[in-house]
Amino acid sequence: VQLVESGGDSVQAGGSLRLSCVASGPPHLRPCLGWFRLSPGKEGEGVARIDTISGATYYTDSVKGRFTISQGNPKNNLYLQMNSLKPEDTAMYYCAAEWSTHCSGRYNYWGRGTQVTVS
Fold first, then answer.
1. Are 15 and 118 in contact (CB under 8 A)?
2. pLDDT for 66-115, tens place per residue?
3. d(CA 72, CA 88)
4. Which of these, 19, 41, 48, 54, has the minimum number of CB atoms within 10 Å of its CB?
5. 96: which residues sit within 8 A by CB, 6+ positions away?
6. Which strand (E) or helix (H) includes residue 34?
7. CA pair distance 74, 113, nearest whole angstrom
8. Half-sphere exposure of 27 (CA within 13 A, CB side)
9. Where does the pLDDT of residue 116 fall: very low under 50, low under 70, confident under 90, or very high at 90 and above?
10. What's the rounded Cα separation, in Å, for the pair 115 and 93?
11. How far apart are CA 17 and CA 98, in angstroms?
């Protein structure tokens, strides 16, 4: 499984960004896809994830109502629409895949990350 992110940028607070991820490899190894973020001095945080089979989505509380995770067509494309961005959203964002259908956010595969900076 390979995951390649894009779309990170520097934006002002209140702005929007759309992150993209292209997932490759056997679909049965990546039924759950999500976004995870890391920033200096903070614990890593699972931002959002989607069960690619059922379409169910999960969000961490801090992004609910502002971020939207979605699958593209074909379903190996993953997106994270981020609106009303705040400085605390500044982080390296990683696309990640989990091979369990439980979609618990315990990821097995990771991309290289894309930097989001909000000032």
1. yes
2. 999 999 877 789 999 999 999 999 999 999 999 988 999 999 999 999 99
3. 27
4. 41
5. 3, 33, 34, 35, 36, 107, 109, 110, 111
6. strand 32-38
7. 21
8. 7
9. very high
10. 6
11. 24
